[in-house]
């Protein structure tokens, strides 16, 4: 297996693969100044490397990298990594490129899309649908028959009651309690979880003030924020 993204997140995936008897041959990264990660070499050209998992935590960037790899190598195979301590129902379906970390629980007939992250200790109950490129952060609990749209991030320690719909490209702040449907493209947080701003509007208004995401020798590819409380804004990788 090869991992695209020489990062702490990548090192966790490397250990999951090792626990399953799968060797990581190398990491791949656009940063030419990074040559080692987790005891493995870091390459700077992904051409013809396969199978691959994109080990980047930020949903938008993970999607961009997956699409770029697929364009450059139509024959690429994307692997998946499921920690041996995770409990995954035999009726659950998990897409390519997805990572399920230690202590996670995925129950009956849940559907996890491609290139998702189900992080440490997260639970996804029966009949849930988690669309592609989502990140369910550590300690999140998603109750049964809930649908989470593509590219949405549910922040650490959040809880989602049953039978809800959370839209695509949303940011749900850490520790939130989601008790009502959430539309597309919003940032929401709190107990109960309330919509605070549109992600599109917020990114446009605050672009110069937010921490940039860098790849490829310093190219700015996106901006990100995670709002945890009314008066505190944190940047997250």
Describe the structure.
With 237 residues, the protein is α/β, with parallel strands linked by helices. 14% of the residues lie in helices and 31% in strands. The strands form six sheets. It has an eight-stranded mixed sheet with strand order 6-9-12-15-18-21-23-24. A hairpin with a 4-residue loop joins β23 and β24. It is globular, with a radius of gyration of 17 Å.
Q: Give the assembly state of these chains.
A: single chain
Order of strands across the main sheet: 6-9-12-15-18-21-23-24
Low-pLDDT regions: 205-237
Shape: globular
Strand content: 25-35%
Helix content: 10-25%
List the main descriptive attributes of the protein structure presented here.
UDP N-Acetylglucosamine Acyltransferase, domain 1; Rossmann fold; globular; disordered C terminus; 31% strand; single chain; 6-stranded parallel sheet; alpha/beta; 8-stranded mixed sheet; 237 residues
Task: Describe the protein's topology.
Elements: E1 2-4, H1 8-19, E2 26-28, E3 36-37, E4 40-43, E5 52-54, H2 59-72, E6 81-82, E7 87-88, E8 93-94, E9 99-100, E10 105-106, E11 111-112, E12 117-118, E13 123-124, E14 129-130, E15 135-136, E16 141-142, E17 147-148, E18 153-154, E19 159-160, E20 165-166, E21 171-172, E22 177-178, E23 186-189, E24 194-198, H3 199-206, E25 212-215, E26 219-223, E27 226-229, E28 232-234
